[in-house]
Amino acid sequence: MRYLALGLAVLMLAPLVAYAQTDEEIFEEFQFNFATPGARAAAMGRAFIGLADDATAAETNPAGLVILTKPEASFEIKRTDYTVERAAGYNSLSDGTTTDFGQAITSPSFLSFVYPVGRLRFAFFRQEFLNYEESFALGLRKIPDSGTEFLPSTGEVDFLGANWGGAVAYQLSPKAFAGFSVKYSQLKADTKTAKFSGTVLQDRSSISDTQSGLSFTVGFLANPSRKLSIGAIYERNPQFDYTEHYEAFLIPPTKKDYAVTIKIPDRFGFGAAVRPTESLTVLADVQVIQYSQIAEKTTLILFADKGLSPSDFDIDNATEFHVGAEYMFFVGDTALAVRGGTFTNPSHDLRYVGDKTSVWGHVADELFNFGEEDTAIGYTVGGGVVLASRVQIDVAYLISDPFNEFSASFVVRF
Hints:
The protein is mainly beta. It contains six helices and 24 strands.
């Protein structure tokens, strides 16, 4: 799945015929990445809501923790290679040419510990829901049909978001389980942008802050038979409020602070796992992500002074489909698994939907409606090994637009 689009539409008119922007370059392409934790689930098309039978269930579907009958610890490390296509050339907004930016990031993305007590299960976990870095340089860009241009700019982006959580699950009946997790969420934001006229600095902006909030997930899992399990989750996520520092080196120079809100969208999902044989499990998930909440909370800094409002911007909610399979077999006493899957990633970019005939409406249209909306398809593959029924090692590789990802996870059962 792609990264969630977060648009901050922030432009101001500068001298001559050039537009100086504060930070819209950062948010033209920046998106969150909702990833299912654990290499095992990642290899199965990120489908896991209807199975949720290991320690990663604490985040994916806490109801599945009931399946675990012994203490279990899980750890995952992940390398994500981002490719961000930006309109960086002079005619890029007219002819659609793009320049690739991005960066590869390796980090410990998930860890958890589960402890069973009677019909209850308790879990503690940490999950990175976002780890994104990028540096870019955009040249002078012509605004089509306007006779004006965007000034050259540079930018640096560093976002790190993590959930620290606890979960509890309860066995409602032999075939029905419920779970709940509450998370302390932190999002560190460090951004810098600068605009130039020739070699002269025109303006710059920055955000450097860490904000926190609470989120929670409610999950349900049922096993009508040995060959079928079904699950459902609802996740409520927080919003984070930052201060952006803006400085323009005009005559007279100006300095101002702006309130900036970033809302992590809520989501709900349904999943099923079918076991046609003892060795084969087939999974399918459907997730609805409420991306429109981002646009509702979008902070409009300078567009607000030009007659545009939050209602002029929108992001479509998206329905994602995740499908995967796992085949288990034995070599001697060692259990092995091969896995594969696919998933859809509908476009969820911020779009300008207001009046396009005004000067500022035309600018917003060219900036935020660049490129076509489409649905990308991602593919996953991986495998695993279980050693002495106590240690499990899994790996996964994901190919998608606009990122590729490798993950390895380790599970220890006590």
